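This part of the workshop introduces the protein records we will be handling. As an example, a complete record with its sequence and its structure tokens follows.
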Amino acid sequence: MIADAEQYRQQDDELNEKIAYKTALEETLFTVQSKVAETNKANEVNELANLMDWLELDSDSASLDEMKKRGRIVEDTWGLIIAA
């Protein structure tokens, strides 16, 4: 019974970390959205659209590592750090 509780606690901690990162990524993408609207560069608009689509459609089933991979794209493209 204690082992089960520890397992569930670990799963809860992992899920909380994933949710926190997803929220931070979402907030950062909204910040990027305002920057991209100002510059209106086609490649940045397309990259942002792809990231926003992924966040909306596929992020619920994504692992934390997959989310961090998308976060690195944001960091590399726009120089913003995901604060999670």
